[in-house]
Amino acid sequence: MNKPIFEGIRCYNDSEVTGALQRLVKEDIFLKMISILFPNYSTKQIVDQLLSYRTIIDFQKGFVNQFLLGLEASITHGIKMYGLEKIDRTKAQLYISNHRDIILDSAFLCTKLIENDLDTVEIAIGDNLLIYPWITDLVRVNKSFIVRRGLSSRQILESSELLSQYIAHTIQTKQQSIWIAQREGRAKDSNDTTQESLLKMFNMYGTEDLTTNLVNLNICPLCISYEYDPCDFLKAREFQLKRDNPLYAKTPEDDLINMQTGVMGFKGKIVYQITGNIEAELKNIGSKKLNKNEQIHHIAELIDRQIHAGYAIFPNNKIAHDLLKNETRFTDEYTQADVLTFENYISKQLSKIVIENKDIDFLRLKILEMYANPLINKLIATENKLD
């Protein structure tokens, strides 16, 4: 059961499903979007189906999962999940993962959990993405809780304390697993690192020492790998805009374009790798004579290594590595046809970028970095050896 203090950030309860769906079906933008996603159904059929759900899990399995399975068939070459044997199914997990796609990272995770007879996760989502009230209803009825952004220093502290309490309450009392990204926003260059402030926030709820508090959250790093990132050209564009104007900031409309492009764009193969609970490693760090900041740093590095070692490596990662570094290290592991396919893909993505003073060389470099960095980091994490 949720506490009153969590009212402003928590996901909806089953008792709120009917009201949320009744509000959603009155939103023209939402209905237009859903009609595009379900072209074989009339608006009335969609509305009737939505209003038939009474619980969150029924809504997720009957509606959200139906859409995601169709999406998996149309925009991917298949989604795999590995490492389920590494988790204790009797416990709630705090999955910390790298972040590639605003919507689908956590959404496809839920489809794979459902396929493996596991409950879906609660999902952390920044309030900067809640552009319209109906989006708030949609994500909260889909088990998302809200992370406040753009706050003053005092508000950040208060919000972090509340969020920490909510996460601990959800894991320990509700026995509900959570997905959260390792950093605020996506790593635009795919150089995935864990924000130390995130770990400090996790610790705020507790009365024990740092590592004990984190052990009690059942932290489980999770690695997400996409063969292709349909938002790569948008990320490259943002890199140039920030280079040319350090004060550049994305608008809500930019976030909406990123969400739409990510949901509907081709991703190739997708792989989820569960790395396992890090309780033993946390206890080992806690046993050393380190101050709290040093412990935080070591824990962030631990999570990074777990995620980096879990990357699935595709031919385009190896090609991007060799092109970026002007090397031939992996030439025996891809064909000239692979190179041509990837070069054509980059050219197509670059052609989508509309920007003043378009710097093709810079933009191409940034896209190459996005595809090379997972391999570079995996090599470091696995002592220069591919699994």
Structure overview:
Strand 3, helix 6 (133-140) and strand 4 (144-147) form a beta-alpha-beta unit. Helix 12 packs antiparallel against helix 13 (292-309). The chain has a 7-stranded mixed beta sheet with strand order 1-7-6-2-5-3-4, sandwiched between helices. The chain has 2 domains: 4-230 and 265-312, Glycerol-3-phosphate (1)-acyltransferase (3-Layer(aba) Sandwich); 231-264 and 313-387, no CATH class. The protein has helices at 17-24, 28-37, 43-50, 56-75, 104-115, 133-140, 153-172, 196-203, 210-215, 232-244, 252-264, 279-286, 292-309, 315-325, 336-351, 360-381; strands at 76-82, 94-97, 122-126, 144-147, 178-181, 219-226, 268-274. It is an alpha/beta fold and 387 residues long. The mean pLDDT is 95.
Give keywords.
16 helices; Glycerol-3-phosphate (1)-acyltransferase; 7 strands
At a glance:
With 387 residues, the protein is of the alpha/beta class. It has helices at residues 17-24, 28-37, 43-50, 56-75, 104-115, 133-140, 153-172, 196-203, 210-215, 232-244, 252-264, 279-286, 292-309, 315-325, 336-351, 360-381; strands at residues 76-82, 94-97, 122-126, 144-147, 178-181, 219-226, 268-274. The protein has a 7-stranded mixed sheet with strand order 1-7-6-2-5-3-4, sandwiched between helices.
